[in-house]
Design a protein that fits this description.
By secondary structure, this protein is α+β, with helices and mostly antiparallel strands. About 40% of the residues lie in helices and about 10% in strands. The strands form five sheets. It has a four-stranded mixed beta sheet with strand order 3-6-2-7. Strands 8-12-13 form a three-stranded mixed beta sheet. It has a two-stranded antiparallel sheet with strand order 1-9. Keywords: Signal.
């Protein structure tokens, strides 16, 4: 009971993010159709598609100027096609029965091997190790050069899609459904459902009424207003977003917000202005897009996530002091070494040595702490 209460309090002071709508792989469906290829359903098919996107002129311009998968520094994005292969999911167990992060598993090694083969074929961004993720996103994928990247239905930048459509008006994007794993599972990893923490000064300890007022202000921006009610007729919405014609204007039945730097709406000044939806489906993100291609993609992503199961990642429910202190740097170094294996600067045969190094430098301590906290809180990973 105490653990459940603590998690509820953590969510109360955190910002909302839909747990099922994380970024997952999407593909240029128009390229698939043009080459007569089907949607990849396993890694072998994915590899064939990525190579075809590289060698078979999928945009039909007669030039050798396309490739399969976008990649950036630190191996962004986190490509996986199910929790079974997710480097961030604590899905698999070691020989001691401990849950371990996907980034050190044999499944991850197999993925790095495939990416190495694709790199040798020119099917991934050739200079990815020094390519900023933002440039890999805008200049490579939305520049019409690559066929696969990741996206979620949340807050996609419509200007990016418009830029791609200027290059190729026929561009069509579609989600890649999760692959069936060897253990029979099929589904992506769920997120925590929240992120960041709002912290109050300890000097407020003897001012409970002030604390309540602060929390009440925070809750104003988190109050969920259904999409269909986000109109000038809803007094709460109209006030919060700065009145129609000043803080926002209506376009095709949707509110379009004024640039936040102009500060014309109370919404811009709130500590937390992310509405906390009762469930993922209530957000109806697809209804917020004016661009038809993006609206279609968002609808497909929403439907895909609605139909598939999602793995509840135990790492979101525990605390590891070692991970908090050095986990980010430890994992970043590990991923960068894996990137060297893709480019050939480090042999894949070094995999076991690389994992041992990660374990010795603090990784095993993180595993021990995570599993101990899981046991203490009676956490059982699973699907929902």
């Amino acid at each position: 009971m105490e653990c459940r209460q603590r998690r509820r309090q953590d969510r109360r002071h955190s910002k909302y993010f839909p747990p099922k709508y994380l970024n997952t792989p999407i593909i240029r469906k128009d390229w698939l159709d043009r080459l007569g290829l089907k949607m990849p359903a396993n890694y072998d098919e994915l590899k064939k598609v990525a190579i075809a996107f590289t060698k078979d002129d999928p945009d039909g311009n007669g030039k050798d100027d396309t490739y399969g998968m976008v990649l950036g520094e630190h191996l962004w994005p986190n490509y996986h096609f199910g929790a079974y292969w997710d480097m961030d999911a604590w899905y698999h167990q070691n020989d001691r029965g401990q849950y371990i992060p996907g980034v050190i598993t044999p499944q991850r090694k197999a993925f790095i091997r495939m990416m190495k083969e694709l790199y040798q074929e020119g099917a991934v961004t050739w200079d990815f190790a020094i390519t900023n993720p933002n440039e890999a996103n805008t200049k490579e994928f939305y520049g019409g050069k690559a066929g696969i990247i990741i996206r979620g239905p949340v807050e996609m930048t419509e200007a990016n899609m418009e830029a791609l459509q200027k290059i190729d008006p026929r561009a069509e994007l579609a989600p890649i459904p999760p692959f069936e794993a060897p253990d029979g599972s099929r589904g992506y990893t769920a997120g925590s459902g929240f992120y960041t923490v709002s912290a109050l000064s300890a000097k407020l300890a003897d001012q409970p009424e002030k604390v309540r007022r602060i929390l009440k202000i925070i809750d104003v921006g988190r109050t969920f207003i259904p999409p269909k009610q986000r109109t000038p007729n809803n007094k709460d919405f109209d006030w919060l977003y700065g009145r129609e014609g000043k803080g926002y204007h209506m376009s095709d039945g949707r509110p379009v917000l004024t640039n936040g730097t102009k500060g014309r709406a109370p919404w811009h000044y709130l500590i937390d202005n992310k509405m906390w939806a009762p469930n993922d489906e209530a957000n109806r993100y697809s209804d917020t897009y004016k661009n038809k291609a993006y609206r279609s993609l968002a609808q497909q992503l929403e439907q895909m996530h609605k139909k598939t199961r999602h793995y509840v990642n135990p790492i979101h429910q525990v605390y590891s002091p070692t991970s908090a202190q050095k986990g980010f740097e430890l994992n970043l170094k590990l991923v960068d070494e894996q990137a060297k294996m893709i480019t050939g600067k480090r042999p894949l045969s070094d995999w076991d040595a690389l994992v041992r190094e990660w374990l010795q430098n603090g990784g095993q301590r993180i595993i021990d702490e995570v599993n101990a906290d899981m046991k203490r809180k009676h956490i059982k990973p699973g699907w929902k």
